[in-house]
Amino acid sequence: MREPNAIDFWRGFALITIFINHIPGNTFERYTFSQYGISDAAELFVFLAGWSIGIATRTRDGAPEARWRSVVRMLARTVEVYRAQITVMLLALAIIAGAALILDNPLILEWHNAGNFFADPIQSVCGMALLTYQLGFFNILPLYVVLIGVAPVIVLIGRASRVAALGLSFALYLTSLVLDWNLPSWPGEGTWFFDPFCWQLLLTLGFVLQDWSRTTPAFGRLTRRLMPLGIGIVLVGITLSVLDLRPDPLMVPEPRLLFTFEKSYLTPARLVHFLGVLLAFSPIYALIAPRIGWIVGFLSGLGRNSLAVFSMGSLLSLIGQLVRFQTGGGLLVDTAVAGIGLVALGITAWFVEWRSRKAPRPRP
């Protein structure tokens, strides 16, 4: 088990933020950082995934891992995330169906695009397997499957040249924004909520910046010098969010996606804001970790077991939505939902680590 560290800490922080934000309208949503900026926890989660890939594809002495080993391990992780997505989708549909039966309310069957499944289960099951059928609030893992699936390409190009990997990634990002590329949804109309052609840039950024932070001392000095710029960007984001200032998508020039704040396409404003958040808050962990005790251990435990915790958090968020729908919400209900959810996430992380410790070890 890894000791608490900044990556796991911030990943755990992102997981809790996503859990809270996936229960719209709850009392605690207004206190999450997504309410005070253009970007949110989704950007942080994907960026840290790329950073973790940079760490995982190196040996303990810092040397690059064998190419075949890196590729096999990332493909195995892709299968693991894909399996988690299918399981979580089936459980979410079962929760929705069960709630409709218990509450005697067939309208719940339409919850978050679930109506397509109950109206046409044959095509929807095929869509689930292809990842083209997604429920609302259950669309991050399909993005993650695609990004981890293409990560070997990013790593292999990055081994030859980090600049080339970043350049090709940015070119794909820019082309996707200009030509409005995205993967189609099926069955049904529309496209993916998270456009993999655009969000791959954030994964690549995490991978490349991890390497530069490790091998280039000047990189650390540069980030410290740019910290005031990051603080300025954060303050601008707070102003835009508090005053609800957003560009009108019907008034901006073409190509439209270069000027809007759309989350689906990780538009440039969101990307710049997230980079500002990184610059402003990157030193924070070293300052607060010695002062917040068990919170560091708790968040790092969530981050170490991010897939299991995220999957459980998605299901708990759905249950929280249904509880608020039935009860009308309120401070007491929201406190109970959030409190029970956080305890359950902590138990999930503990159980995964307990099971790994209890697993039989191969004999020498």
Helix content: 55-70%
Radius of gyration: 21 Å
Shape: globular
Mean pLDDT, all residues: 93
User: How many individual domains?
Assistant: 1
The major β-sheet equals: none
Count of beta strands: 0
Strand fraction equals: under 5%
**Alpha-beta classification:** mainly alpha
User: What is the chain-wise order of helices and strands?
Assistant: HHHHHHHHHHHHHHH
Low-confidence stretches: none
Number of H/I helices = 15
End-to-end C-alpha gap:
21 Å
Characterization of this structure:
The chain has 15 helices and no strands. Helix 6 (140-160) packs across helix 7 (162-179) and helix 13 crosses helix 15. The protein is globular and about 65 Å long. The chain is 68% helix and 0% strand. It starts with 5 loop residues before the first helix and ends in a 6-residue tail after the last helix. With 364 residues, the chain is mainly α. The protein has one domain.
Which features would summarize this protein structure in a list?
single chain; 364 residues; mainly alpha; 68% helix; globular
Strand and helix map with partners:
Elements: H1 6-21, H2 41-56, H3 67-102, H4 115-119, H5 121-130, H6 140-160, H7 162-179, H8 196-215, H9 217-225, H10 227-242, H11 268-281, H12 284-288, H13 294-304, H14 306-327, H15 331-358
Helix pairs in contact: 1-2, 1-13, 1-14, 2-6, 2-8, 3-6, 3-14, 6-7, 6-8, 7-8, 10-11, 13-15, 14-15
What's the short version?
This protein is mostly helical. The chain has helices at residues 6-21, 41-56, 67-102, 115-119, 121-130, 140-160, 162-179, 196-215, 217-225, 227-242, 268-281, 284-288, 294-304, 306-327, 331-358.
